[in-house]
Amino acid sequence: MPFYEKTPDNSWTFHSLYDMLCGREKLMYGGEQTMNVGFFACGTLSLIFLLLAVIFAILKGKASVLISGFNSKSKEERSLYDEEKMCADQRNAFLIWAAILGIGAIFSYLISQYSAIVAMVIWLIIFFKDVHWDDEKAFGKYKK
């Protein structure tokens, strides 16, 4: 998405979205060129989690085979659990993760690259809070 901008010396300069994301506008004004890695990392992860949330929303209960640990259970064991609720909770988790990382990407672009680190730390805390090594802790609340 190209656009023109007036420079301090009253001449016009051409920018593209890529130039802005890579920090090239700083180079044009005598600054150093830096790539906003935090923006790309948080933005990419946010889009991945958003895509996974859409997949879980479309497939509903059938997406339960995508949940780690649950896919290794036999069909008889899987029938003992509420797969619809399990997939809805996983979809909601993906949406929360996408929102946190999306906000981190926006703040990383607008405020500071270090905003991405804060978003990643928040995401990691929430992620590891939901990770369970025991099947009963992971799937116990979904028993019928």
Care to describe what's here?
- This protein is mainly alpha-helical and 144 residues long.
- The chain is 60% helix and 6% strand.
- The chain is built from seven helices and two strands; from the N terminus they run E-E-H-H-H-H-H-H-H.
- Strands 1-2 form a two-stranded antiparallel sheet.
- Strand 1 and strand 2 form a beta hairpin.
- Helix 3 runs antiparallel to helix 5.
- The longest helix is centred in the C-terminal third of the chain and has 28 residues.
- The chain starts with a strand and ends in a 5-residue tail after the last helix.
- The mean pLDDT is 81.
Can you summarize this structure?
The protein has 144 residues and is mainly alpha-helical.
Give the helix/strand layout.
Blueprint: E1 3-6, E2 12-15, H1 17-21, H2 24-28, H3 37-59, H4 75-78, H5 83-110, H6 115-130, H7 135-139
Antiparallel strand pairs: 1-2
Q: What topology, given as strand order, has the largest sheet?
A: 1-2
| Large-scale geometry | elongated
Assign the structural class, choosing from mainly alpha, mainly beta, alpha/beta, alpha+beta, or little secondary structure: mainly alpha
Q: Please give the radius of gyration in angstroms.
A: 21 Å
- Overall pLDDT metric: 81
**Tally of extended strands?**
2
Portion of residues in helices? Answer: 55-70%
Helical stretch tally = 7
Largest sheet: 2 strands, antiparallel
Question: How much strand content do the residues show?
Answer: 5-15%
Low-confidence stretches at least 5 residues in length (pLDDT < 50)? none
Cα end-to-end separation: 52 Å
The SSE order reads: EEHHHHHHH
